[in-house]
Design brief:
alpha+beta; 4 helices; 18% helix; globular; 208 residues; six-stranded antiparallel barrel; six-stranded antiparallel β-barrel
Length: 208
């Protein structure tokens, strides 16, 4: 199914963080690489996800989402920064998926569910930005989540711990690596109202 066809179908606009691996992407040690991703539109049959590395139509994908579990998928359509996945599952699990999506849609509309922690991590509306290294080179990346103190990203570029870099306009240093990305601590703590705008600022400049 094409992306355009899926957009005309009944589906839920829901944001769920997850991870995925493309069956052709390996690291320097020969291990399958894992990247972060986030759903944009989901049905019990397929989903559109925002990703840092876009696969090809027909390519096999293994994905995992905390709210949905693991899927074996095939890419059926691509976008500039994401792709459409056909979900393979049993009829019983598809029925469960339908009920889960209905519940998530209701939860999204419940204004009483709010995040009150002062320095809580949040997901910015724009999921993509650029990393800029000390020598001026830049690399695209996918924002997993962000707080006033730092940001977690996923990217094809894989820097060692300690690497100084800027995420958008926020300068920091890589302090930790995990399975599908790495964490950057800002050199200076940011204001919550400003941080999302600052980390995606260079993305707008790159595309201009």
């Amino acid at each position: 199914m094409s992306v355009a066809e899926f957009l005309r179908q009944r589906a839920v606009e829901v944001t769920v963080s997850g991870s995925y691996s493309l069956h052709r992407w390996y690291d320097c040690e020969g291990k399958l690489r894992t990247f972060a991703c986030r759903t944009k539109r989901v049905s019990p049959f397929r989903m559109i996800v925002d990703v840092p590395v876009v696969g090809k139509v027909g390519e096999r994908v293994t994905s995992y989402f905390e709210d949905f579990g693991e899927f074996e998928c095939t890419i059926s359509g691509t976008l500039k920064s994401g792709f459409l996945m056909e979900l393979e599952m049993t009829r019983t699990r598809r029925a469960w998926m339908s009920e889960k999506l209905t519940w998530l849609e209701r939860k999204q509309k419940d204004a009483s569910i709010a995040e009150h922690r002062r320095d809580a991590r949040f997901v910015p509306q724009t999921p993509h930005t650029f990393l800029t290294l000390a020598d001026g080179r830049s690399h695209p990346c996918f924002i997993i989540d962000v707080s006033t103190a730092g940001v977690a990203v996923s990217a094809e570029y894989d820097p060692p711990v300690g690497t100084p870099l800027a995420v958008g306009a926020c300068v920091g240093r890589v302090i930790r690596k995990f399975d599908n990305g790495f964490a950057v601590k800002f050199a200076e703590k940011q204001q919550r109202d400003d941080v999302a705008r600052l980390i995606v600022r260079s993305a707008a400049l790159q595309s201009a």
